[in-house]
TrEMBL record:
This is Fimbrial protein. InterPro entries: PilP. It comes from the Bacteria. It comes from Aliivibrio finisterrensis.
Length: 171
């Protein structure tokens, strides 16, 4: 019985492997004719005329213009307060202060922490002395109804100014 099944399978395999007897040269010629008939001719390429740049007057367009100095502009102060450079590494320092919300205050008299909500919706605990906001805002005081920050802002003339900002708890 096994031999008969084996012979039957071999016969089917040999019959299935019968090669195509058409000559390859005829197939190649027919395929080439069909391929040539389907190709569309491309449109002729338009010639591009290059116009050379010749500067007559004025500044070069490839150089940035100089900043105009206004006569009424105040002169930069030589000696003024500069903050110490510090690397911004707090998670709340990448957000503008107006986008942060005070959501709660918890703790006892000496150990009070504030709960700040980010624009993404997560809540972060903040202690006194930590930094938050894009203007180097340092937490100075935390009260049950609000928290106070000290920000340092450039005045546009090379100096820096301090300002105090309060974030109030909304009811």
């Amino acid at each position: 019985m096994r031999n008969r099944c084996f012979i039957a399978v071999m016969v089917f395999l040999l019959v299935g492997c019968k090669a195509n007897t058409d000559p390859l040269d005829v197939f190649y010629v027919e395929a080439k004719k069909q391929g040539d008939a389907e190709v569309k001719q491309l449109e002729e390429v338009a010639l591009f005329a290059v116009t050379p740049y010749a500067q007559l007057t004025g500044r070069s367009p490839f150089v940035l213009p100089k900043q105009p100095e206004i006569a009424t502009q105040p002169i930069k102060k030589k000696s003024c307060w500069q903050p110490k450079y510090r690397k911004k590494n707090g998670s709340l320092e990448r957000y503008a202060l107006r986008k942060l919300r005070l959501k709660g205050v918890m703790g006892s008299n000496d150990n009070i922490t504030a709960l700040i909500q980010t624009p993404k919706g997560s809540v972060v605990k903040v202690h006194k002395g930590q930094y938050m906001g894009s203007n180097n805002g340092q937490v100075v005081d935390i009260k049950p109804q609000y928290m106070t920050l000290r920000e340092t802002l450039p005045d546009g003339m090379g100096c820096w100014q301090k300002r105090y900002v309060k974030l109030a708890l909304k009811h």
